[in-house]
Amino acid sequence: MRSAEVKEADAGDAVPICSLRVGSRLYGIETRQIREVLGTTAPRRVPLAPQYIAGVLPYRGEVLTTVSFRALLGLEKRDGANCVLVFDDEENEDRFGLMVDGVAGVIAVQQDALEANPSGLDERSQEIFDGAYKLPSGLMVRLDPQRLRPSRLAESGLFGSESGPHERLKQVRQGGQS
Amino acid sequence: MGQKPDKGEVEDLTKEFIAESQEGLERMELCLTQLEKKPDDEELVAEIFRAVHTIKGTTGFLGFSRLERLAHAGESLLGALRDHRLAVCTELISGLLELMDGLRGILHIIEATGTEGERTKDNDNALIARLLELRDRGSSMKAVPASQNQAPLDKLRAGSSTSSGQVAQHPSQSSDHDAVLSALPAAAPGVAMAAAPSMQDKTLRIDVEVLNRIMNLVGDLVLTRNQILRCSPGEQNFPELARRLDSVTAELRESVMQARMQPMGYLFRKFPRLVRDLAATCGRQVRIEFEGQETGLDKSLLEAVRDPLTHAVRNAVDHGIEPPQERIKAGKPVEGVVRMRAYHQSGSVVIEVIDDGAGISTERVLVKAIERGLVTPEQAASMTQREALQLIFVSGISTAKQVTSISGRGMGMDVVRTNVEKVGGSVELESRLGSGTTLRMRVPLTLAIIPALVVRSGGESFALPQNSLVELVYVTQHEAEHAVERMGTTELYRLRKSLLQLVWLDRLLGLEHCADAERHDFYIAVVESEGRRFGLVVDDLKAPEEIVVKPLSAELREIGVFSGATVLGNGTLALILDVAATGARAGVRPEAEEGTVVDAKPAEDETAQIELVNAMVIYETGQHQSAQGGDGGRMAMPLSAVERIESVPLSEIEYAGGRAVLQYRGELIPLEDDGNLLRALAEAEATASPGDARKDGATATVLICLRPEANGARRVGMVVRRVLDVSAGRLLAADAAASQEQLAMVRNRVTTVHREFAQHAGNPQTAILKEVA
Q: Greater confidence, B156 or B23?
């Protein structure tokens, strides 16, 4: 629904984009899609959960499932400060979090600077990226929170299969026997 | 008339009126089905009369004349019934049910549009005429079989809510009087149930006392806040204030949560009617029984399980229970039984729909599943019966008509599952061919508070629901090396001469910390759930806490081991372990599959029937002390009746009018002291030498129990010598020849169950409200 609105908007309009740091790259999410930005938090790890789940956080009396964007990109875990963005899961009337290294700031970007995903993109990136803004300083990959919903990531089956609960359990059992 | 009432006050009044009337009609529905069974019960008639009378009185005031006319006709018929000018017959009940549906239909239109849809007046006239005819005819008429009247009604009700919705919206479009007559009333309940936020979903009745308690707590909270605001951080009494704030908030939270809890009985109320109508349509004889109506469930969840339950009951009557001839052939009583049972287990509420019908043939399910390519023949061969039955929930199978006709079940089972899973629950099916089917829904107690023990393993905290916890064993560093013994890859611990399978929580969950756990001390939490009993090995125990269960997102629920999460006292999150799933994951097999299918045995077996009960608290009373030489009387109390075991200093026990009372959570509860233990303790305290622990510090052990009473339950304290054990026991069905006492077999010893609480233990005679449908 929201993407449709964006397309309807005048191509020349500037949209405020929140830029995020993950690793050495910048990513952007439209600010109006973000519900809240939580400062440094340490989500509670959930054993046996898929790797892309960073853990759970208490949020407004509910338990917020948090996705680790680093894990989605296949990057190593890192210690130190991080940031959790809270989004609405439109399909399930729920909320979820996205853990990134940090929030860089808000910039205004012209809508016509957006270009769709190139067809040559690998399957995983195709799944999580939503085009890129051609900025003077370089490309900023656009993210659509609805593509990063935990339920959708689980359905796609592209992430965390190598570390799914069953495989991990097998390892554990073998470990227990030896 | 049909004019829209003025805004503001009238609108509020209307809302209130609708909520009140719907409640009244619900009571009326229940009473009507009971009345059919007990036609001479004047109380029931009076109750029904009141419901209709209230509606009539209020409608006149609010100006809903259509509703008033209908209610008036009903009232005059009921008046005749009340004055014994009429006798109860099937036709009369059906007529009254139709009246009720008619009233409901109009109420719904009012709720949706603010007016009462005047154009369908003719249909009311037909119904009113029928009611008046019934009144004038008296009881001399031979009743028309109910099934004929009910048939079109049920067909419509069984239809989806969309068609009902249309009827409600365009009540005047059909000119066929008969069709509308039966369609409009029939549509009403369906609409009220399906149309999302109906008035009933939005309102909640709360005991004024509960509200007062909440208000008192808020008062406390304000006072504490004032004190904190005035006090500087360095002040000495700051920790004390913080503690008070903590306790007030905790109590406030608890009170609000409890206010949201509604007994399952609210939901069960509508089923006698449903079963009655359905049984008549399908030509079955069915009785419905309820158990565990007092089981509390959060209001929002109660609404969420309403539809799946309706579906399940419909299935049980329609496909589960066989027609009378077949039942006779199979040697069963002609009347089938559908039993609805609700109880708490492992942080969830379990609702079972049990029928004693034909059961489901797993072979046929498998054959069908193979045909449809859902499983390969090899897979099918290796499937257990249980696994095969769960195939019914797969949408491909359940929606297929063929399976419905051969298995007798399956229609819409995937819908049931989807709905229950939507609220974080699960559904399973158990069936024995020829003796019945059990559908078990497990709904999480979202928002509910459960007592749990917080344990540490692998450096993380987990919450272990207390109700699956049997006992705790501490293994010291010294013992650790020899305590664990192995058979193959299974690790075992000798617990009082029997072997207990051990599950290392950190290893099971793949936590890093699992290095040589056997080298240092550890705890074994002996847990039992769904027939699986095992020892869960954890590093450390933290305080027991009353935790608020928060649901996990679907992806995390899928892991299966966690039933939810909770925020601990220190603000961190802890995951709540699902004990049964943990055991299953670790490969612990259920010890014995206990059949929960209703026994279809002949009646003479019933005296020997042994009812399975939950855990029992075994304690020593002060009685028989002299007779048995200091051993005291051994008694058992169902664990479900015991709220808390308190150690109370004697100084806190007060006496009012010669009766010992205790102030407990702002409530004055009476203490029962059968064996005069309090006096004995007081004497011991007085005579103890200074320095003795008993001097000035004597405590009495008090079981805080909930005593069932006519209007709910009351807390009462039982003074006991000491608590011996908590153990699973079986209630021995009362033997007519034996004494009045309810006996139970606990730990292979016959133990007396405290008489007032025996029914808590699931005594079939008292705990089940029987209804004939």
A: B23
B176: Cβ contacts below 8 Å, ≥ 6 apart: none
Q: What is the largest CA-CA distance in chain A?
A: 65
pLDDT of residue B63: 73
| Minimal Cβ distance to B573: which of A63, A165, A175 | A63
Residue B560: half-sphere exposure toward Cβ, Cα within 13 Å = 13
Neighbours of B7 (CB within 10 A): 9
Q: Which of B511, B525, B398, B406 is nearest to B469 (CA)?
A: B525
Residue of A nearest to B423 (CA): A92
SS3 letters for B683-706?
Answer: HHHHHCCCCCCCCCCCEEEEEEEE
Question: In whole angstroms, what is the distance from residue B46 CA to residue B269 CA?
Answer: 18
In the numeric block, which tokens belong to residue B53?
């009378």
Q: Cα–chain-centroid distance for residue B426?
A: 15
| Rg of chain A taking only CA atoms, in angstroms | 17
**Distance (Å, whole) CA B15 – CA B20:** 9
The pairing of strands A138-143 and B490-495 is unpaired
Smallest CA-to-CA distance from B625 within B555, B589, B679 is with: B679
- Selection from B591, B571, B456, B458 nearest residue B525 by Cα: B456
* Dist CA A38 CA B153 (whole Å): 55
Closest CA relative to residue B189, chosen from B132, B274, B124: B274
Please indicate if any CB of chain B lies within 8 Å of the CB of A174: no
Yes or no: domain A14-173 corresponds to CATH 3.40.250.10 = no
Under a CB-based contact definition with an 8 Å cutoff, are residues B729 and B750 in contact? no
Nearest CB among B510, B555, B567 relative to A65 is that of B555
**E-assigned strands of B520-609?**
522-529, 532-538, 540-548, 562-567, 573-577
Which of A56, A60, A68, A94 is best to mutate for the B interface (most B CBs within 10 A)?
A: A56
Let me know how long chain A is. Answer: 178
Q: What's the ipTM?
A: 0.77
Phi, psi of A60 (to 5 degrees): 50, 50
> Which range, B38-52, B239-253, B331-345, is most confident?
B331-345
SS3 B225: helix
Distance from CA of B217 to the nearest CA of A (A): 20
Distance CA B325, CA B329 (A): 6
- The pLDDT tens digits for B68-96 are 888 888 888 887 777 777 777 777 788 88
- Bridge partners of B538, per DSSP, are B523
Q: Which residue of B has its CA nearest to A155?
A: B555
Q: How far is residue B395's CA from residue B641's CA, in Å, rounded to a whole number?
A: 41
**Which pLDDT band holds residue B570 (cuts at 50, 70, 90)?**
confident
Burial class (CB in 10 A: 0-12, 13-18, 19+), B666: exposed
Domain edges within chain A:
14-173
Q: For tokens 């009185």, what's the residue?
A: B57
A residues 28-87 near B, CB within 8 Å?
Answer: 44-50, 53, 56-58, 61-63, 65
Residue B218 binned pLDDT confidence (cut-offs 50, 70, 90): very high
How many other C-beta atoms are found inside a 10 Å radius of the C-beta of residue A7?
Answer: 9
Contact B720, B636 (CB under 8 A): no
